[in-house]
């Protein structure tokens, strides 16, 4: 953990608070538990941050579910994606170990379905307040007066440039 | 509030309220000219804006579908969003990072200075630097550009300290640059609080935009009417071949026809070309002002790329103004480098969400993870360079129509060999600067969706070479003007907004004189 505090803009809705444990899937509008857990495993295989808890990947899939609930085209693509990763080898994606999961994902990299899932994972995983906190991104600042008095020029491991440069 | 009648044919109708259209609207209103300003987006206030990268993107961006083709990387990474501009009152000035550099004389004589380069459609500008200079002065004063008019430069932030250490070790000429962001209070607007969110709307108002400066002042004259959420779909002309009206659709979906004394297009490059191509008639079967086939062609987007580097210790690059650093050693054309044209090196900062999204779209796995986990220790450095005009790099219409019945635009772009040479040269310099400051690893990030959209309705000394004359007036339609970046004859290297604003002020002078003389 870095020595910062991350903030979301107070005008935005607060981060979603999912139940701990297997019950988290009950918060979803569309995905069934198998689809949801498979997508969580895919998100973690794509972006395997050892230090991040399962709940940040679940929140990412929660956002996929919201996308799918809004757009039938996206819902269909997520469903196709899960069929693709489950059908690639004789065992379901969830049952595979990391090396086989990688093999399956590399095999479908060129598909539209993979691109939607990979891009959406980046879109939502790295927009998560807990991830910001973990990786040292402080986020919204205007409501705190910006960074002018909160370290915009506090880097001290290089010499300061001459004044007015 | 001033309100003009739809059948009032004495008004100048401007389409688009960004750097070009918003500035021109105010400049004409200040000269006593009646103006209707059509803007496709909403009229937001600083209170509406958010300090959030994706939240701001979704609030401000022009998100209508486009398609792309050609061998540019953008077509692979961002196939349905190849160009990035805003749909909101203030246009892309609600988003821009406020770098303000002037074109140099050689850039405005690109054909003469660079010579014959196979595959390019280089021309010289029909106007000289000397002709624009007085307008650059006016633009810098109204925008409050740092290091002009006695205004101090932006202070060094953390990311700049990294850039400065590397660049000065290499003997390069580095400063925090020039920006339309207040380093001290100016023109009724406060100094920056270094909040780092100028590009999601600027809640503080320390940065110039047409939303917070030009449009309010234009409205205050009583000569300007702003119509937000008004989507232009067609430009009509009369029997004499003069632009006579703009057809637009309002927020309720109702279609209107605003008559016009003159029409000015300022909807950003892609939309201006798209609207001209769509405005077909018996007299202009290939689109308005397109008798010579130049509308949509010679599209430019600058050679934009970033290097993100990881250091041993924290940088927190998100703290403070995001592009407050500039190196101008590579701006001048130097044949010894093996390519034509030049480029600016600028500082670049992004938050974690967009650093992750744009560092290398499509990159996943443990290697990516090992880099992005060190976000706190990352610094960014960027270049904006001149790309070569090519006839087939162009905006065209597809068979698919949007919700307003206007064909979706396709943007085709193939990289020219000169572009590749400059990109390689640039990546080497950017990486060398960070290495000299102690970078452990540097990542070459590709271009993001094009935000410096230029040239697709270019001005030229003769109609055989471009859509517009040196006054940004269509050769074929004497009361039709363009005042966005599509009017650039060639791209130059620097961020284009200052030049767009200077040309808009010049445009206002020209139009006012023509009107006074009874010629417009």
From TrEMBL, chain A:
<protein>
    <recommendedName>
        <fullName>Gluconate 2-dehydrogenase subunit 3 family protein</fullName>
    </recommendedName>
</protein>
TrEMBL record, chain B:
<dbReference type="InterPro" id="IPR000172">
    <property type="entry name" value="GMC_OxRdtase_N"/>
</dbReference>
<keyword id="KW-0274">FAD</keyword>
<dbReference type="Pfam" id="PF05199">
    <property type="entry name" value="GMC_oxred_C"/>
</dbReference>
<dbReference type="InterPro" id="IPR036188">
    <property type="entry name" value="FAD/NAD-bd_sf"/>
</dbReference>
<dbReference type="GO" id="GO:0016614">
    <property type="term" value="F:oxidoreductase activity, acting on CH-OH group of donors"/>
</dbReference>
<keyword id="KW-0285">Flavoprotein</keyword>
<dbReference type="Pfam" id="PF13450">
    <property type="entry name" value="NAD_binding_8"/>
</dbReference>
<feature type="domain" description="Glucose-methanol-choline oxidoreductase C-terminal">
    <location>
        <begin position="389"/>
        <end position="504"/>
    </location>
</feature>
<dbReference type="GO" id="GO:0050660">
    <property type="term" value="F:flavin adenine dinucleotide binding"/>
</dbReference>
<feature type="domain" description="Glucose-methanol-choline oxidoreductase N-terminal">
    <location>
        <begin position="86"/>
        <end position="280"/>
    </location>
</feature>
<comment type="similarity">
    <text>Belongs to the GMC oxidoreductase family.</text>
</comment>
<protein>
    <submittedName>
        <fullName>GMC family oxidoreductase</fullName>
    </submittedName>
</protein>
<dbReference type="InterPro" id="IPR007867">
    <property type="entry name" value="GMC_OxRtase_C"/>
</dbReference>
<keyword id="KW-0560">Oxidoreductase</keyword>
<dbReference type="Pfam" id="PF00732">
    <property type="entry name" value="GMC_oxred_N"/>
</dbReference>
């Amino acid at each position: 953990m870095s020595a910062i505090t991350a903030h979301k803009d107070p005008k935005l809705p607060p981060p979603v608070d999912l139940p701990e444990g297997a019950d988290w899937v009950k918060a979803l509008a569309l995905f069934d538990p198998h689809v949801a857990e498979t997508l969580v495993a895919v998100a973690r295989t794509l972006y395997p941050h050892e230090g991040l808890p399962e709940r940040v990947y679940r929140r990412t899939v929660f956002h996929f579910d919201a996308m799918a609930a809004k757009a039938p085209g996206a819902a269909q693509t997520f469903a196709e994606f899960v069929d693709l990763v489950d059908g690639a080898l004789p065992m379901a994606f969830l049952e595979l170990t990391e090396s086989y999961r990688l093999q399956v994902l590399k095999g479908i990299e060129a598909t539209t379905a993979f691109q939607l899932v990979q891009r959406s994972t980046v879109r939502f995983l790295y927009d998560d307040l807990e991830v910001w906190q973990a990786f040292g991104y402080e986020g919204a600042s205007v409501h705190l007066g910006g960074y002018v008095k909160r370290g915009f020029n506090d880097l001290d491991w290089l010499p300061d440039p001459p004044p007015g440069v | 509030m001033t309100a003009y009648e739809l059948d009032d044919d004495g008004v100048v109708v401007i389409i688009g309220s960004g750097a070009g259209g918003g500035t021109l609207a105010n400049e004409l209103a200040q000269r006593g000219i009646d103006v209707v300003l059509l803007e496709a987006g909403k009229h937001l206030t600083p209170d509406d804006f958010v300090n959030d990268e994706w939240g701001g993107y979704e609030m401000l961006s022009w998100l209508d579908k486009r398609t792309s083709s050609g061998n540019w990387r953008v077509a692979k990474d961002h196939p349905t969003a190849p160009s990035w501009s805003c749909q909101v009152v203030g246009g892309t000035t609600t988003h821009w990072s406020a770098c303000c550099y002037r074109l140099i004389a050689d850039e405005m004589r690109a054909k003469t200075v660079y010579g014959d380069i196979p595959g390019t459609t280089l021309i010289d500008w029909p106007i000289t630097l000397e002709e624009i200079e007085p307008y650059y002065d006016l633009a810098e004063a109204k925008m409050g550009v740092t290091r002009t008019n006695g205004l101090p430069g932006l202070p060094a932030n953390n990311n700049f300290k990294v850039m400065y250490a590397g660049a000065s070790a290499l003997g390069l000429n580095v400063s925090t640059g020039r920006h339309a962001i207040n380093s001290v209070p100016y023109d009724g607007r406060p100094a920056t609080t270094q909040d780092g969110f100028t590009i999601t709307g600027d809640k503080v108002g320390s940065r110039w935009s047409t939303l917070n400066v030009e449009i309010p002042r234009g409205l205050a004259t009583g000569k300007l009417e702003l119509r937000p959420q008004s989507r232009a779909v067609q430009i009509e002309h009369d029997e004499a071949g003069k632009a006579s009206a703009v057809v637009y659709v309002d927020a309720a979906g109702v279609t209107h026809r605003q008559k016009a004394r003159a029409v000015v297009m300022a909807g950003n490059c892609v939309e201006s070309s798209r609207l001209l191509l769509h405005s077909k008639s018996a007299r202009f079967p290939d689109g308005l002002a397109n008798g010579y086939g130049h509308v949509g062609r010679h599209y430019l987007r600058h050679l934009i790329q970033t290097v993100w580097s990881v250091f041993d210790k924290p940088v927190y690059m998100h703290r403070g103004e995001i592009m407050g650093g500039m190196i101008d050693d590579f701006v001048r054309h130097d044949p010894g480098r093996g390519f034509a044209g030049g480029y600016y090196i600028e500082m670049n900062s992004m938050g974690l969400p967009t650093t992750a999204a744009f560092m290398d779209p499509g990159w996943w796995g443990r290697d990516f993870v090992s880099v992005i986990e060190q976000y706190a220790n990352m610094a960014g450095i960027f270049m904006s360079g001149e790309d070569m005009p090519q006839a087939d790099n162009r905006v065209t219409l597809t068979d698919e129509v949007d919700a307003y019945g206007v064909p979706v635009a396709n943007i085709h772009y193939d990289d020219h060999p000169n572009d590749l040479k400059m990109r390689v040269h640039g990546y080497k310099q950017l990486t060398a600067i960070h290495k000299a400051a102690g970078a452990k690893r540097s990542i070459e990030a590709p271009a993001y969706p094009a935000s410096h959209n230029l040239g697709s309705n270019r001005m030229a000394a003769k109609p055989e070479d471009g859509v517009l004359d040196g006054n940004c007036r269509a050769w074929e339609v004497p009361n039709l003007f363009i005042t966005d970046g599509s009017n650039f004859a060639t791209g130059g290297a620097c961020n284009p907004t200052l030049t767009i604003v200077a040309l808009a002020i010049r445009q206002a002078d020209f139009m006012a004189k023509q009107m006074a003389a009874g010629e417009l």
